[in-house]
Each structure stands twice: as structure tokens, then as C-alpha cells.
Write a structure and sequence with these properties.
By secondary structure, the chain is an alpha+beta fold. The chain has 4 helices and 6 strands. The chain has helices at 43-48, 71-86, 136-150, 176-181; strands at 26-34, 61-68, 93-100, 110-119, 124-133, 158-166.
Amino acid sequence: LISRWAPIAISPSHTHPPPSGNMPYHHYEVIGRRKPKKITVDIEAQLKGEWKQPEEEEPKIYRMKIFAPNTVVAKSRFWYFLSKLKKIKRANGEIITINEIFEKQPNHVKNYGIWLRYDSRSGTHNMYKEFRDTTLVGAVQKMYAEMASRHRCRKSSIQIIKTCIVADADTTARLQPFIAKNKPEFNLLHRVPRRSSKSHTKVYSAHRPVTFF
């Protein structure tokens, strides 16, 4: 007989991928607009010379910066916020472009201020928080973790309004002990150079890249 609590061996083919909550976040810039209206031509009026061509409509373009694990989620959040703010649905709109924003100085420690709004069980609240990190994406991930632990807030209930870099002298009392200790320094042990554009990428290279300095 097999015991009720006997361990069951699971083959690697039956393992599940990690949940989306463990996926790293990326900073995307999504640009979209409402679809332009189609111009209908009255052939009979055009033959009689009574039809005038209307002016082409140029829909207003909207740009939004979104933190998401991939482009699919970024597009979904873009249409969610645009439908709330401007009453434009996904069926009536189109995505012009979506670009990923990289950190200019990922090796420097900075203070990030984040203005956010979140929905709790009692209502909607505004909040300002500061985090110390090398990248804005890392600060946002810390913010999500802190909001989940302290306020039991889900990621879908948080709306990031604005972010900025705060000087050391302007930080709140929460970050002052970390700044007053010393100037942190990190060894650059493993650096992988990123190509400036996709046209410079190579599948095969004659020399092995050197990433350790």
C-alpha cells in the first residue's frame, strides 16, 4: 500500500514556469492614438461636382510611460489607463510604437521619489515614497514589495503618477541614515556591453568578448 503522504516525483517536463510576480520589470514608453475615421465618398455627388473632400482628421497622440514585465502587459495597461482617462477603447485605437527606456547611469546609486495612488479596502489613497537604488526599475520593484507587505496592496491596484531623482540634501528622514554612513562603491565584476542598435549585433564573432575587468 502507498502511504497517504508518500512523496511524488515530478519530471522536469511537468514543471511549471515561475509566476509573473517573479519576472523582472522593464520601463516602457507606449505611444498610441484613436483610429482616424474613414472617409466615405459619394460617387453620385462626385460625378455631379457637388461633393467636397472633407479635411483629414489627425487624432491626438498620447504617450505613456509604464512599468511592466513585457510588452504585452505594457500595451494592456496602456489601453486600461487610456480608456479611463480619454474614453478610448482598444478596438477604436492603435499603438504607434513601444520603446524600452534604459537607465543612463546604472552603476550610480541614486535616490528616487515615487508619487503613487492605490486602492485599498477602505478607499483610494495618495502616497509619496523614496527608495535608494541604482535604477528606476529597481526602485519600482522595491515599491511594489513594500506596498504588498505593509499595506496588502496588489500591483494591479497601484498607479504610478510621477517619478523623479531626489538629491541627498532633499531626501526625507527615512533615507538619511543610509546616506550619512559613507559613499557606497561597487566593484564592476561582470559587465556585458550592449550594442547601440540592432544593426550592430552579430551572431558570430571572431574574438571572444571580455566581460571581466
